[in-house]
Each structure stands twice: as C-alpha cells, then as structure tokens.
Amino acid sequence: MAAEERKDIKKSVDELHQEKLNLEKEINDLNLKKIKKLEAINEELEKKSEWMDKERIKAIKERDNLVRKVRHSNEKNWKNALKMISILGVLDLVIVPLAITLLGIPMQWLFVAMGMVTFLGVLLIANYMSGTSPFNTGEIRKAVTVSLLTVYLAFVPVITFGIFASPLGASAQSLVNNFTWLIGAVIVIYFSTRPLEEYIKKMNTK
Predict the structure, then answer these.
(1) According to the model, what pLDDT value does residue 39 have?
(2) CA-CA distance, 58 to 53, in Å (whole number)?
(3) Cβ-based burial of 204 (10 A; exposed 0-12, middle 13-18, buried ≥19)
(4) 132 φ, ψ to 5°?
C-alpha cells in the first residue's frame, strides 16, 4: 500500500512538474510574442518618426524657399518702383517743362501737365506696390495728394520769385496763401479719412 501511495505521489509530482514546464513554456512564448509585437511597434514608430523628420525638413526647405521668393519679390518690386519714381521725376522735372517751352505753350499749363503726369504716375506706382488689380480709394487718395503737393512745391517758388507773372492779375501772396490753404485741407482730409476707413472695416468685420 505504501508503495502505491509513493507511486501516486511521484506521479502527482511529475504531473505538477510537467505543468510547471508547460506554464513556463507558455509564459516564454507569450513573452516572445510580446517582444516581437513591441519590436514591430517600435519599428513602425521609428519609420513614422523618420517620415515626420523628412516632412519637417521638407517643410523647412519649402518655408525657406517661400521666404526667399517673397524677399526677392519685395526687392524686385522696390527696385521697379524706384525705377518708376525716377522716370516720373524725369518726366516732371525735364520732359514736361521742355515740351511746354519748345511748343510755346503758356507757362500756366506747366502746372496742369505736371499735376496730371504726377497723378497718373503715382496712381500706377501705388497700384503696382499694393498688388491689387483695380484701383482702390486709398491709391487714388495718395495720387491726388502727391500730385497736389508736387504742383504746390513747383508753383510756390515760381510765383514767389516772379519767374512769370501770376495769372488773372492776382498778387503772388494771395495765390500762395490760397493754394497753401488748399494743400492744408487736402493733407488734413488725407490723414483723417484713413483711420475712418479702418474703423469702418473693423465694424463691417464684426
């Protein structure tokens, strides 16, 4: 009887030992699967990280290229604008007075021609620099103000120093005074309407 009990106990121990081995094997298998899964996830994350790094580098290069293009475009715009301003200055100071003198046109028409040339030139330059297709009120306001100031700066010395007689028999002082008041009113209107426009835009966007 004792021999049979020992056999049963030995059998139970062997079974428990086998179960232990089986459990250890299952645990090892699970650990291997988990390790493989983690390695796969890690590999996928590394690939995503590399892809994100490449996209980040690509985005940085595109941003740098865009900034370079914008800077180059701005420099080009300013250079072209300076050329246009130079041409406008030559027209106002050389071509228009020379044409008035050669054609024998009365000197008073010099200011009319100068005002028209300056108005159109400044309007084109302002529109070119703004990059808008239609002319807006701001560009027209700039053109009107600059053309009037140009005529004023040419008119005052010519009348004051008596290069030619003032039209309509009016005194030089009264003409200069009236023109000065007109220029002052234009400048006040120019600087007062801009904040008003900004306020109206803000009210419309709300």
Answers:
(1) 86
(2) 8
(3) exposed
(4) -95, 150
